[in-house]
Design a protein that fits this description.
The complex is a heterodimer of chains A (about 110) and B (about 120).
Chain A lengths: L8 E4 L5 E6 L9 E5 L6 E4 L13 E6 L2 E6 L8 E8 L6 E3 L3 E5 L1
Chain B lengths: L2 E6 L2 E2 L5 E8 L7 E7 L6 E7 L4 E3 L7 E6 L4 E6 L8 E11 L2 E7 L3 E5 L2
Parallel strand pairs in B: 2-11
Antiparallel strand pairs in B: 1-3, 3-8, 4-5, 4-9, 5-6, 7-8, 9-10, 9-11
Classes of the chains: A mainly beta (about 110), B mainly beta (about 120).
Amino acid sequence: SYELTQPPSVSVSPGQTARITCSGDALPKQYAYWYQQKPGQAPVVVIYKDIERPSGIPERFSGSSSGTTVTLTISGVQAEDEADYYCQSADSSGTYVVFGGGTKLTVL
Amino acid sequence: QVQLQQWGAGLLKPSETLSRTCAVYGGSFSDYYWSWIRQPPGKGLEWIGEINHSGSTNYNPSLKSRVTISVDTSKNQFSLKLTSVTAADTAVYYCARTLFGSSGHHFDDWGRGTLVTVSS
């Protein structure tokens, strides 16, 4: 079955830049999406279609794509950005959704 | 802004059938797919499957043999049935609005999750 691979954890100090990667063989063909999930809350999309940012999401959140890897970048990390981040995409057919295992972002 | 509200039993015994319904308030029901997603305690997200207003479904291959998702367009509701549950099915269950098409395949609005526990 198709899988997306994320690092389990990333730690940064406030004001630094956090980068969270997500790798998958179908990513060159299928869009990637990034969700932020805080404890006890439903996920919220912070990046869609690889690089697009929904309205209301701070500009410090950005996405990029290169080959089989997509990256969520948070510039000037703030304490409120501490959360779990999940990448999501679809298999090569586009039909079946898959999530990455999630990355816990810790703001030191 | 769409609101999604779900209900169903929160405690099940092994081998029983999990049943949940999600009602959609606001927005267009027929323009979207509607998904179920779950998250075991302390673990990651798992897509269960989706349905559109016409009843067209897609299921996670790993759950397909036990899952049925149905729709009631007269009430703007969709439902999940998961048979033969075990402790591994204990999770927070979410319903979500799904964009599937030229915009890719993702979830732009989520309901509040509900914990379903399977225990003897």
